[in-house]
């Protein structure tokens, strides 16, 4: 149940120092995000070319933006005008915390992204690699200095408001920042094998684990914006320190608990009373009753996904990395999101004022004039993260199809091809004089660097491999062109090479090479949109035990080809959307018809 | 059918000059709005005291605001900085036309309101009466000068853009302004028996009837914001000129017709092409496909009410004043609005960006953070106008209950008790740092003067009387305190006096006096919220043939009392609203619980 905080007995504890050996996760298969760097995406392929835009242009653009924004310099702990929250807040809706509170996470996401590109074979030829490397070193050096004696690391509450430290977990994003910096540190360690950044973050995490938790002398708190949960569970897959797993599980399970020691109140209510809400005043019903921050009920009792989309989906991402009930809850809420609250484009979030979910299933207006539309890039990225974790826990054609739909239709469009402009919201239509163009940057700019780290990690979304004695299991998630090596227990190497014409043509060739005596079990996806699906030689197809997949048993050295048709489809919206529209799709791609490029309709 | 434009054969035409005799409408009963001035509301009663606020303060405030705004002086046809639309429009969403385009209607509504108060017995003691009278005279004198040789009357297109006259009916509100000035002229004629203002407006209407219509040499147009339809049907009930009825009917029936002479296009599409939409660009799906302006389908084919709430409900108001199919269509769309798209407060419109209706039945979020909420004062006033017309066509307890609900919960709150501040939107809850207070005025200020004319006309919403030979039929709409005289065919006088403790207590006494030989048929409403309903003497109750009403047959001189209980009710929202709330009601009044006056909920 969501209400027990005890650390799991299994797996056996290991000391944090042993970081050399290969690690397995609770679900006993390697987390693709931990093996992405064994994959090299073909540079001349569709995904390779897009990835190159990020490696060659977007990362550079974003580094310049971070410098311009002030978040880069902020770790020097100097004063910045934007720290003057009261002034900034004046005009703002009180639901959004001041942009400077998110600066540390912007930097963290950029470092994480840069490290991914630096550590993948196809990223070796980065034009600005040396500039990135020295920026990363400088930032880490600044952080080492910025870290307080007790381990705390955060620019705003070190420079501006020491007394306010960790007093407003609901709004102030300290744990969120810590999470992104921790993921950056994990990526940095994986690339550099240097522990200095990781040590900084483990020290900070130790402070948070000491301060917050179920213990008598701990504050029973959790963040208003989940992210530390995701990061610490990734840390656990490296350290296998059960305290890391337990804390990640606690932050998810403690949510919405009525703590006797807090007068039976939910943490955010108690916390707001403690600080007398002098600065932030929760002036929305959905904040007061917890829906916005997903503490209106324990995850186990939530039958529909509500509130701020990214917060909700990050919480579900963490739960999908956990065990037992929480994993089931993640499955239920993800299915509700996909079945009832996702746009045909994979866009998520139809209530602009909360950047979030409607109470209404199938309330998916295309624009503000129809009642709302948001479809934040980060929300679809979060959905991809959930898909990847669900797939690594249990293969599913549905999770694969959704991951591909989000990636191609609500994520890749988040950046322009020149790598200089970005979408935050990906509305299906715009209203009045709303801006329909991409922007160079945003005051709150979570999306652009989130895009970069997702592209950096793309190899991790492609497939996953598990080895057991002489059997190599290969699960294919996305049809892409690339190759990867597999380290076998014997120390030998197996290689997989996939060359695909997706997303344009359903033609893919797979070449497998393993030492004599090994065999492959390959799970080949049959996408929802595929018609006339063939694997040759056909005799290889076995009756499938996974919906949307075919299991193939193959000898050590095999070459197979997969072909399927992708006829143009006209997709009609669910009747409950009350929409009189059709979407044009071919394969995984939804096509957009810009009104500016077309003559106006005449109401017929 | 909604597609035939022919003028009705009945009733027999009368020449416009004969304005002296008592008039009957097509539905063969006096339009309450044409007999309101026979009613005097008791000044010491609930409604009398509120009405006094308008007569003594609101009208004065609004006259000052009109002078400050510039709309008063505008009829002198001088230049005003606010006429510089391009400059004004820059920052605005293109769906809202420039405020100055509505100035003429603001003045019209104020004159109409002032005339109502001047012509009712309880309005005789107006403290500022002489100032109002000279303002009215000055405005009418200015209009007489401002009227062009061909009859056109409109400040903006006379001063700024002569060439643009009547070229953009969709956005520029010329017909809307004409409608409100015409209703003002009717009120002025009724009060002063002076035809000068009415003649001005009839000249303008003649120009419009010549320019627009089904004829070969006419433009097949209709306004983007209905109102002229309502006004001209009221004009018809005075003139009985069938051309007036036919034009009112045409403007409703022509809507959405695909005109062969316009290349089979709807008028607004053709019109936008003619002017190449250089200034206004319809950049919303709901404008492009006609939903916003209600031309997406003929009224007869609309199975749910859509688009801008006030425009939609004004169109339905006009249809509810018409015959046959259009009256049925009005009934169907009004029932859809009330059953599926109205807040418990009688508020209407849940999509802020279009000030309008959702495609979703029961999509009634309380605030922006829940997905939207608008509930414009004018929309509930429009609903009251529909109720009053439906009641005058066919008595109905439902229409009566809805009219009372709108008046008490989403209309009266539109002005502060000091008569100086007003609501435009009446949201059930506010979000973030939205303004929850009333404002002194609005750039587009349709609501405040609309409130005044509604309060001025309040006696017309109270009851209606019809006389046939020796029988006087009295239909009671609202329980209020007041009296009225009834002119009998014999020239004699009957009087009705109602004294009621509503809305606080279900206790009402009715005193009827008619000459010997007359008898009364009185329709007494039993409100939806009434429990233990008694009429004494009880023997008088007859089996009711109208839902929500009791028919009483009474001798010439009768006194009866009506009593009912109004226990406190907890109203649960329709399940499809997905809302976890309760509304507290007693009788017709919905009670509001201000979060600022109450401790925060704790998500329990």
Automatic annotation (TrEMBL), chains A, B:
It comes from the Eukaryota. Pfam families: Beta-AFase-like_GH127_cat. One of its GO terms (biological process) is carbohydrate metabolic process. Residues 45-455 form the Non-reducing end beta-L-arabinofuranosidase-like GH127 catalytic domain. Residues 1-21 are annotated as: Disordered. This is Non-reducing end beta-L-arabinofuranosidase-like GH127 catalytic domain-containing protein. The lineage of its organism: Eukaryota, Fungi, Dikarya, Basidiomycota, Agaricomycotina.
